[in-house]
Amino acid sequence: MHGSSLTAAGEVEKAVKVAQAADTAARNSYGRLVAILSARSHDVAWAEDALSTAFESALQYWPQTGIPAKPEAWLLTVARRAMIDGARQRQTQAAALPDLLLLSDELMEEVDSAVIPDQRLALMFACAHPAIDASMRAPLILQTILGLDAAAIASAFLVSPATMAQRLVRAKAKIRDSRIPLLIPDQSVITARLDAINDAIYAVYTAGWADLAGAEGQTSLVDEAIWLADLLAALKPDEAESLGLLALMLYTESRRPARRDASGEYVPLAQQDTQLWDGKLIRTAEKILKRASVLQQAGRYQLEAAIQSAHVARRFSGQTDWPAIVKLYAQLMRMTDSPVVAINHAIAVAETAGPQAALDILPTVQAQPRLQNYQAYWAAQAHLLKSAGDVAQARQAYDISIGLEPDAAVRRFLQKQRASLDQ
């Protein structure tokens, strides 16, 4: 009995090790393998299906055969064989022949190769191709590079899993049918496409950051976005904006521990305990932003990172350098002409020139109709009107802001601010 217990325990331990090895391979290699499997066929969905088969085989065979010395190469070989089997089952041999020849050649070539090429950047460029709908670039990168399923992606982008799955299928079909190359484009288009990739990664980050309560899946989205930005910075270390994006997210993430108090209530930036900010993340962000500045390629994400740097400096000096922040937002305004930037610029101006000066430059719904349902706009207006002593208008702005805010803790904070108007 005792021997059988030991045997069972050993089998469980082996299964756990295999599962951990498969998880590690998926984390580190999923995008690499999808990229190389779809490089010639242009069929991302086909590559993903084959890779799924390879992972299933790993869970089946590795407990018996042991974890291979090169798990990534093992998975690539099995996935390619699965693709060859799939090609053989196509309707006509004529249609299957080109794919069979390509895959067979690659299989022989790569099995003997000690280094599997990293084509994830090329896959990112394909996902950010102008032919792909802009709203689908971030979800497509999440699935093809990280292997997240449609349900997890759907929850982040506030659509149903079925809708997201359909959109992802259509986006991958566009890559296949339009023969979008999985290649790094020439210099004439690389900047525009990199901007799209950066924007997609930042969209992933903001989807996770917006959930203050840390709902299941949201914190991991933040982690995945930072991982993607780190990957992009490693693949394109000479692109200052990619470095700026990574620095921006690290600065912002450093403040996460202070965004809630011990009882889970929302704490605005100005009231946060700076000693709770993550000093290690701040130092890493500082180094990355300095690397970006040396490249002398001014851009939006670098300016946003510099603004965050000015905010986190309060951890060391005890004061926020509002004049510097105002100047940085003014530069960002000239670069982006974004109403969101304009709102933040006005809030910064209030700290140096008073609330009325800020209200004078705050965008209006008449000039920017899309601000009508933008919660942060009404929260900013309410704060500025309150500071300026316009109680009636502040009360109305708070009511709209509270109605638009999805997070219960932030609603409670705004309700307290509104209640203070009557005291």
Structure description:
There is one protein chain. The chain has helices at 2-38, 44-65, 71-88, 93-111, 120-127, 134-146, 150-156, 161-177, 187-209, 218-235, 240-254, 279-294, 300-312, 314-317, 322-336, 339-353, 355-361, 375-388, 391-404, 408-419. By secondary structure, the protein is mainly α. Among the domains are: 1-118, no CATH class; 120-236, no CATH class. The longest helix has 37 residues, at 2-38. The protein is elongated. Mean pLDDT is 84; it is low at 107-114 and 212-218.
Please supply descriptive tags for the structure shown above.
single chain; mainly alpha; 423 residues; 0% strand
The helix content is over 70%
What are the secondary-structure elements, in order, as H or E? HHHHHHHHHHHHHHHHHHHH
Give the CA-based shape.
Answer: elongated
Radius of gyration of CA atoms, rounded to a whole number:
25 Å
Low-confidence parts:
107-114, 212-218
Q: Which whole number gives the mean pLDDT?
A: 84
Characterize the main sheet: none
Structure classification: mainly alpha
Number of helices: 20
Cα separation of the termini: 75 Å
Strand content: under 5%
Question: What's a concise summary of this model?
Answer:
The protein has helices at 2-38, 44-65, 71-88, 93-111, 120-127, 134-146, 150-156, 161-177, 187-209, 218-235, 240-254, 279-294, 300-312, 314-317, 322-336, 339-353, 355-361, 375-388, 391-404, 408-419. With 423 residues, it is mostly helical.
Q: What is the strand and helix layout of this fold?
A:
Layout: H1 2-38, H2 44-65, H3 71-88, H4 93-111, H5 120-127, H6 134-146, H7 150-156, H8 161-177, H9 187-209, H10 218-235, H11 240-254, H12 279-294, H13 300-312, H14 314-317, H15 322-336, H16 339-353, H17 355-361, H18 375-388, H19 391-404, H20 408-419
Helix pairs in contact: 1-2, 1-3, 2-3, 3-4, 5-6, 6-9, 7-8, 9-10, 9-11, 10-11, 11-12, 11-13, 12-13, 13-15, 15-16, 16-17, 16-18, 17-18, 18-19, 19-20
